[in-house]
Input
Amino acid sequence: MSKIIPGTSPFDGSAAQKGYALNKMCFSFNDKANRDAFVADPEAYMVQYGLNPQQADAIRSKQVLALLDAGGNAYYLAKFAGIFGLDMQDIGAQQTGMTKEQFKAKLVAANEQC
Output
């Protein structure tokens, strides 16, 4: 039984199949040469990995929710976000519709309640 969390897209087998090309591309960013190749020509790099139009649009927009909806896995998307100097707190802020500062404050408050 899976728990549904409002505003999230569960990453299940279906999402894994849907996002295979996107996640494979993002995994490639572990290698600096691949990150450099993407920055030099993002469109050609996306074609090389066979991204579908939804995935390519999500990459162009750099919007985490669009990337998740396109089948992206948060761990692989972190590699993509790192190219632009974004960290997991930036991603969390985008997911929740908060500023990074608001998101960090929310994390601190949640930690203080433990």
